[in-house]
Design brief:
Two copies of one chain form a homodimer.
Chain A lengths: L9 E8 L16 H13 L6 E2 L8 E10 L8 H9 L4 E9 L11 E9 L12 E2 L6 H7 L5 E4 L14 E11 L4 E8 L6 H13 L7 H8 L14 E7 L8
Parallel strand pairs in A: 3-10, 5-6
Antiparallel strand pairs in A: 1-3, 1-4, 2-3, 5-9, 5-10, 7-8, 8-9
């Protein structure tokens, strides 16, 4: 008797990672990815290839506090044991926070309701010896102006002007429900942006643009015209990946994940 | 014409470091120390040996948000330039936050009024992929009991029971002015302890002991008897260095450092 793949238990992993040393979530030829690291350990344990499906990709160097990915596998192990078995073989910069069996119809990407990204900026004269997950910005910034620019992003809009190059998606319309700025100390600032989906490099392009507003290169109200233009050249530069975290992924309440 | 050493400008460095890869502050034969890394760059720049005097030592693996160290050197450089010159040659886990000239009589160790240490505990099932500077504690802890134990440490007391082995100091009496616990998230807890001075491994022994109280091995009030006993064997284990930070050093107000 054999099982078809769709009958195998649906195992969900909640994953935290420090993206510095990886080429991003997705398996690629040019270096180790989070996906390939975990899939390789799964293959080692199961003695066959399995594919991980994540809530979405993260770019090279981007971190996650809360990424979800699922795979289907019939095995002798309790679903909860996968976390410990994987952590035993994974590098310390990738941790499986837990593993659990999900209903067969659950899908880690298709069922995403919203995601929250966090972007951390260290605004002081000198880089940090202690924190590798921040964008070090030594220049002066008008944080009040930056704060004034954030509401212009909120709503359902066409974010084509904030989409990375070579991106192929059906529509560049996304709904941003929140774009907040919190000052954690005299020098540490954290952006939080929540939406129903994000285009390639969208958060980094949004942050890079509002930092230019903080430099005085544009007025906060310029965001309106940039969005309307749908022109990537009108927006600001792409902020570096090291300050970016996938911070939260929300699924329907019935799945009990949040 | 030549300058005597005492006439050379007194240069103070404010230093931040991630201690993971170092044998501690002090120069030692068995590996790279923060002191040796900085002294070696100073020697490279000045083409002669200089000695750094810190506010005090930190143990192997311990971090600092705010360490101070001074050296005397006559050079062609403005005092403020040392920070940039040193950072250019130092590893990214050691950063000079600033450099400045101090009055000739100022001494980085002798003029210390108080120090604050921070100890971070990650209390959850799984280690952190993102934060190397925490003590990962997977077991259950009664944080309310831990909180109740802290006031017993405050005051001028003989902390012999919390002194590391092979320590030679005149007196083990120290004054603790504050021992606080803050919960930063559902899983991250931070101790802050302020005092006029600390014995070898004193903070790590204090934290190790209150964690045993959180495990239910002792009552919070047991601290009184442990201190009175002056017996190291009565106190708890030594918490690991990776959660410990030298967080603040206070000097007399006239020096304008705080």
């Amino acid at each position: 008797m054999s099982f078809s793949l769709s009958e195998s238990p649906n195992i969900l992993l909640k994953i935290e990672y420090e993206g510095t040393d990886f080429v991003g979530w997705q398996r690629q030829a040019d270096g180790p990815s989070i996906q390939s690291m975990i899939e390789d350990v799964l293959e080692y344990i199961l003695e066959r290839r399995v594919v991980l499906y994540a809530s979405g990709r993260t770019d090279s160097g981007v971190h996650a506090r809360s990424q979800y990915a699922m795979f289907r596998a019939t095995s002798k192990y309790e679903p909860e044991r996968w976390a410990r078995m994987l952590n035993h073989k994974l590098p310390p910069t990738i941790r499986i926070l837990y593993s659990k069996e999900m209903p067969s119809e659950f899908h880690a990407q298709k069922h995403v309701i919203s995601k929250t990204y966090e972007y951390r900026v260290l605004n002081r004269k000198c880089a940090s010896a202690l924190d590798r997950g921040v964008h070090f910005y030594p220049g002066e910034l008008d944080w009040q102006k930056i704060r004034e620019s954030l509401p212009y992003f909120v709503g359902e809009k066409d974010f084509k002007a904030f989409q990375g190059a070579k991106s192929v998606v059906k529509t560049s319309v996304r709904k941003i429900t929140r774009f907040d700025l919190t000052q954690l100390s005299s020098e540490l600032f954290v952006f939080e942006v929540e939406g129903n989906g994000f285009l390639k490099q969208m958060v980094r392009n949004m942050v890079g643009t509002v930092l230019e507003i903080g430099e005085g290169r544009m007025l906060p109200s310029a965001i309106e015209g940039i969005i309307a233009s749908r022109d990537r050249r009108r927006a600001g530069r792409t902020a570096p990946p090291r300050g970016l975290y996938l911070a939260e992924v929300v699924y329907p309440e019935r799945y009990g994940l949040n």
